[in-house]
From TrEMBL:
Main location: membrane
UniProt feature coiled coil, ranges: none
Subcellular location: Cell membrane
Domain of life (superkingdom): Bacteria
Signal peptide (UniProt feature, chain positions): 1-21
Protein name, entry field: Na+/H+ antiporter NhaC family protein
One Pfam family linked to the record: Na_H_antiporter
Annotated keywords: Cell membrane, Membrane, Signal, Transmembrane, Transmembrane helix
GO cellular component: plasma membrane
Residue intervals passing through the bilayer: 107-124, 131-154, 174-191, 253-276, 296-321, 369-392, 420-437, 458-476, 496-523, 593-611, 617-634
InterPro entries in the record: Na/H_Antiport_NhaC-like_C
Keyword Signal part of the UniProt annotation: yes
Length: 640
């Protein structure tokens, strides 16, 4: 037996060597063609052409009998074709012929994933499940067209191993998640160490009348700008005893708390909102090759069209300074000031909710305002410094033809906003931790625990963000923006896109109770569609950009308006609880004010801005209109 093996061994070795010596690469003149698994009807798609000799240069082809050339680079080139239903493609090259019948998905199917997400959100009033359902549906459709019946299972698997995984492994997406977590941790630490309470105590001590009490509440809502939840919880709970003493109704307190929280958090440069907003905006602009600006620049430049948030903050101030109200709010204030009954119904305060204990100040410590102001200042200054550092361009700065504002805009527009936000948020958290430990307010274990609890408060936002990015990838693959653009082009003028966007965002936010969920659904859908429409309409770049920025702001502003009117909104509910105001009383008294400001924002802001009128004109006009509304429709309390 051993002898036989010895004789056969050389034979086996020769077979192995001969096999390994066979060429593993195609001949130099051989052409390979790779077709896509599926196509979208009437939308261009790519076919990959490969030549075995790494040839670079033009390659002559015959596509359905017509001569065409493809430029190869290192043996690889891309042939662009447009899918037509049941129309086969024949490609001939280097004596070889390839046949392909596109599995074309009807373009109108591309609108179904986001529509399903919106519809389910309207029906069940829950965003996470709705977004996930939209992703699954889109993935299954793509899978079925690519693999037939087995695509049902294949699409389900791609939901997690492709779309959600890609959303989490993207560098920009992870930067946003980290920033949001760090801000959440910082908010928790400066709440625990008494810094936030110190700011509140410092301001509330100066409130001696109903007007000054409301003004102090409004001012605190502006100062605590970096997080709407922190704003709502801290201002509502701490000012409640002050406003009760001054005979200010709980409805008015809840309104001021609610209507300063989201508006100021949504437009400030450094907040827990900014990470989500940048992520949503990025998902809408990442494939717009002709848009020559970054995501942070888009956000900053869109603020000039944020009419509703800014008008809301001003409207509250006009009500306070003129000592007037109207509608249900006036009846509530009259009750409080004449009878001292500040609330029609007593409710449980937010302090009774254990799941929000991370915002409570640690017992037995002295509140010091600088424990919050210093870390927040580090984040603000650090973000600005990081933007200037990463975007610095000496030529831009030294350009004598550019004003200072334009120079800063160009520098910030080219900056790495993710690095700036990460650096500053980490620095702010470290400073907050050092200040807390050095004063022996908490030990390092307690600081870590508090930071972790702050991380947990951002988990819902992270989940929504991840699903939103995944749905954006689905809509990009299915070319939803192309369908929406073609539909809108045939029905409306691009000038009306901002106001339609504002109303649509308000309706979705009202029905779902989530401004973040609304932005997650609409930004990836509306931004590319609006940009493509303005280009197709032949608008000049600067005018198209102004409409695009108006649309960007309208998604955000409409989301906040719908959130203010919705009885199922998280911030509306938190405002009621933090102010110990009956929830329905809060909704009924706030809605007329929110709708009033929303109407002014549409008529004197969004629509004329889309027509080319400068925001420098529109903001003063809108503010005057709001002042006159309060003056002539508001009822005074001078005789009370």
């Amino acid at each position: 037996m051993t002898r036989k093996l010895t004789i056969l061994l050389p034979y086996f070795l020769l077979c192995v060597l001969f096999t390994q010596a066979q060429p593993s690469e195609p001949p130099a003149d051989k052409v390979e063609v790779t077709f896509p698994e599926y196509t979208i009807e009437s939308v261009p798609y790519e076919i990959t052409i490969t030549k075995g000799d790494d040839y670079s240069g033009p390659l002559s082809l015959s596509v359905n009998g017509k001569s065409q050339a493809v430029t190869l680079k290192n043996g690889v080139g891309i042939l662009d074709l447009t899918a037509e239903k049941n129309t086969p493609v024949t490609i001939a090259a280097s004596g070889q012929t390839f046949y392909f019948t596109p599995k074309s998905i009807p373009l109108w199917w591309s609108i179904l994933p986001p529509l399903i997400a919106i519809a389910l959100a309207l029906i069940f009033r829950e965003v996470v499940t709705s977004l996930f359902a939209g992703i699954v549906f889109g993935a299954v459709v793509l899978g079925v067209y690519a693999h037939g019946a087995m695509g049902l299972i294949y699409g389900m698997m791609r939901t997690i191993d492709t779309y959600i995984l890609n959303a989490l492994t993207d560098g920009g997406h992870m930067s946003i998640i980290l920033f949001s977590m760090l801000i959440g941790g910082t908010v928790a630490v400066i709440s625990k160490n008494g810094g936030m309470q110190g700011i509140v105590d410092h301001i509330s001590a100066r409130a001696t009348t109903a007007k000054s009490g409301q003004l102090a509440t409004w001012l605190m809502g502006i100062i605590i700008f970096f997080d709407d939840y922190a704003n709502t919880l801290v201002v509502g709970n701490t000012m409640r005893s002050v406003t009760d003493r001054l005979r200010i109704s709980r409805e008015k307190l809840a309104y001021i708390v609610d209507s300063t929280a989201a508006p100021v958090a949504s437009i400030a440069f450094v907040t827990t909102w900014i990470g989500a907003e940048l992520g949503y905006i990025e998902s809408g602009i990442q494939n717009l090759e002709t848009l020559n600006e970054g995501v942070y620049a888009t956000f900053i430049l869109s603020l000039q069209y944020s009419f509703y948030p800014i008008f809301t903050l001003a409207f509250i101030l006009f009500l306070i300074l003129q000592n007037k109200d109207f509608g249900p709010m006036h009846r509530a204030e009259t009750r409080a000031r004449t009878t001292g009954v500040v609330s029609s119904t007593q409710t449980t305060t937010l302090l009774d909710k254990d799941d929000l204990s991370e915002f409570k100040t640690k017992k037995g410590i002295r509140s010091k305002w600088y424990n919050a102001v210093v870390p927040i200042g580090v984040i603000i200054v650090g973000t600005l410094a990081g933007l200037l550092y990463t975007g610095w361009d000496t030529e831009v700065w030294n350009n004598p033809d550019h004003a200072l504002g334009l120079k800063l805009s160009e520098i910030i527009g080219s900056a790495d906003s993710y690095k700036a936000l990460l650096w500053s948020s980490l620095a702010g958290l470290i400073v907050a931790a050092i200040m807390t430990i050095s004063q022996r307010i908490m030990n390092i274990t307690e600081v870590i625990t508090s930071t972790s609890s702050g991380f947990k408060t951002m988990m819902e936002a992270v989940i929504i963000l991840t699903l939103a990015w995944s749905l954006a990838e689905i809509t990009a693959e299915m070319h939803t923006a192309v369908f929406l653009t073609r539909f809108l082009e045939a029905n409306i003028t691009p000038v009306l896109i901002p106001v339609i966007t504002f109303i649509l965002a308000a309706l979705v936010a009202f029905s779902t109770g989530s401004s973040w969920g609304t932005m997650a659904i609409l930004y990836p859908l509306i931004l590319p569609a609006s940009w493509i429409m303005t280009e197709s309409a032949g608008f000049e770049y600067d005018y198209a950009l102004s409409i695009f920025h108006n649309v960007t702001a309208s998604v955000l502003a409409g989301s906040v308006l719908g959130d203010h009117c919705s009885p199922i909104s998280d911030t509306t509910i938190l405002s009621s609880l933090a102010s110990s105001c009956h929830h329905i009383d809060h909704v009924q008294t706030q809605m007329p004010y929110a709708l009033t400001v929303g109407a002014v924002a549409i008529v004197f802001g969004i629509i004329p801005a889309a027509m080319g009128i400068s925001s420098w004109i529109l903001f003063p006009v809108g503010l005057v209109i709001l002042y006159l509304i309060v003056r002539f429709f508001g009822k005074s309390y001078e005789k009370i």
